[in-house]
Amino acid sequence: MAAREVGPSGDGVDMVIPIVGSSSIINFTAAAAEQGYNPGYIDTDWASHLADVATAAYAPGQYTDVPALASVRAGDLSVGLTPEAEECLANYEDFSGKTIPRTTPEQSGEYTNTLITCDLANLLVAALEIATESGEEVTQESLQAAIEQITDFHGAYWDTISYSPDDHSGAKTGRQVRWNPDCPCWEPDGEWAPLPL
Fold it and tell me: Are 48 and 111 in contact (CB under 8 A)?
């Protein structure tokens, strides 16, 4: 996504779906605002787009009421955290001696990255337990086969994760969230539902 000079109507482009890193979106929205170009946006949780700390840096007026599809728990700070997220943050706080704020907007990437790390570590532990339940040594093949047996894993950051030998996508549920510039934060705007295959 390269910012280029366009007319106020974006030369006929009225919808942007940014499949780039957040820093590129920051640059794009700044260039768009500078030119008076105000397209609509639809976003996803790709590349940490739904971290409040990233979206809060987008040019004012560019991301008002933007909808996004989330397979992650973006928006939970505005409505309350799940038990999995609370347990994750409490364990991190006990270990680190730090306190992670649980208020909107998210103040740093530490909140999101802690939840991601908990899910990845818990998925690895679950796979290791499966791989070693018969007492054998763990190999690359047995670890992969164990991961492919994990189903309906409810995480601190992802809602539901499942794997199989022919599906390594992970996330199985999603919901719509919407950017509220007054917060500024993502807020849930729909219920969790299965993602289409």
Answer: no
